[in-house]
Amino acid sequence: MFAPLTRPRRYQLRKSSIRLLASGHPWLFRGQLSSAAEVFRDGQWLALCDQDNRPVASGIYEAEGAIAVRILERSARPPDAAWVGERAAAALARRVGSPLAGETDAFRAVHGESDGLPAVAIDVYGDTAVLETYSIGADALGRLAAAIVRRQLGLARVIWKPALRRRGGQSAARAPRALSGVLPEQPLRVREGALELWVDAAGGQKSGAYLDLRGLRRWLAGQDLAGVRVLNLFSYTGWLGLAAEKAGAAQIWNVDSSAVALAFAARHHAGTDGRQRHICADVFEWLPGLAREEAFDLVIADPPPMTSRMSQVERALAAYRRLYAEIGRRVAPGGRVAACCCTSRIDERDFRRAVTAGLGPRFRVDQRLSPEIDHPVGFLEADYLKVLLLSSER
């Protein structure tokens, strides 16, 4: 018998919102809603109605931010458990049937809107799934999807990192909890190609690691870095540093503002031969003070998101230009740069211009790494991660 996951409230769409809905875009933005939507609570499920007040879709209401409604289903019928199961199973089939299965046991099983399950991300690390929900209204959706992933993959546990609760303009984090099994007391070990990697799945940023940077780690592991000096900026727990070490780099300087992340990196992702150095500092303050004679053959920069608001994009691009101007001064002749941007509000064209303007004319863009299979780009804003590989003149 059909049973919707939650009881929706009706909301009549404007004509412009109906047109955007028909285009297939998974979001309705704040300016497209009337003031009638302001009565809804954060996370409220809505039955979205046309001009004749007939339900045509369902969605999750967001009380704050640019995204006002995340679209669930484009039909009159609200999603039920079977609907969630179909979408989760389809997402898993795309991963399990891909070359990714032979490369790693750490992957993203569900990638939010691009897999048809908005505001839900599920990462798998060996025998553990980590669920993240980005909207209060997606909590039930995510928990059901995670249970399906656990059952289909035969996993030992599911860890849930719930959405932030917003009250009076303030956001409050909720502690991770085990939905099945128990929270791990020790880091989890996973494999990725020839790398043995460790992740703090119950803590740390995001789900514990950055699986979307697998392509950059794969590229690093395939390089001949014998004798090369590497500067790894915003290094977090050192997965990229380890990839550079395995590729033969002579020195790797890892710089991050988190002493906890650096300690984890030194413990789990650095050899005992002293090739890796860990520096706790704010990169934007530390880099200008680095001695000008310090030159590196490869610089990796993976800064955190600069902004989530369109109004702040120009300021973020200016910050990128300043960062890469400093990086360019410390790249040896013939050296290379791996430039990363994880800000969805900044498109590739503007990011590329900011990076090349900062680095200067002696650098050229050689390629952009493609998104990983488990991070599909289902719509424009989902193309959030840009990784550019650049080289300099000798």
Describe the structure.
With 394 residues, the chain is of the alpha/beta class. It has three domains: 9-73, PUA domain (Archaeosine Trna-guanine Transglycosylase, Chain: A, domain 4), CATH 2.30.130.10; 81-180, RNA methyltransferase domain (HRMD) like (Transcription Regulator spoIIAA, 2-Layer Sandwich); 210-392, Vaccinia Virus protein VP39 (Rossmann fold, 3-Layer(aba) Sandwich). It contains ten helices and 21 strands. The chain has helices at 15-23, 81-96, 100-103, 139-153, 214-221, 239-246, 259-268, 283-286, 313-328, 348-359; strands spanning 9-12, 27-29, 45-49, 55-61, 67-73, 106-111, 120-125, 128-133, 157-161, 165-167, 170-172, 177-180, 188-192, 195-199, 229-233, 251-256, 276-280, 296-301, 331-341, 363-368, 386-392. It is globular, with a radius of gyration of 22 Å.
Task: Give a short overview.
The chain has 394 residues and is α/β, with parallel strands linked by helices.
| Largest sheet composition | 7 strands, mixed
CATH hierarchy class name of the largest domain: Alpha Beta
Helix/strand-derived category reads alpha/beta
Low confidence ranges? none
CATH topology of the largest domain: Rossmann fold
Number of strands: 21
Put simply, the count of helices is: 10
| Main β-sheet, spatial strand arrangement | 17-16-15-18-19-21-20
What percentage of the residues does DSSP assign to strands (E)? 25-35%
The portion of residues assigned to helices is 25-40%
User: Outline, from the CA principal axes?
Assistant: globular
Number of spatially distinct domains? 3
Give the CATH architecture of the largest domain: 3-Layer(aba) Sandwich
Instruction: Report how far the terminal alpha carbons are from each other.
Output: 69 Å
Radius of gyration: 22 Å
**Average residue pLDDT:** 93
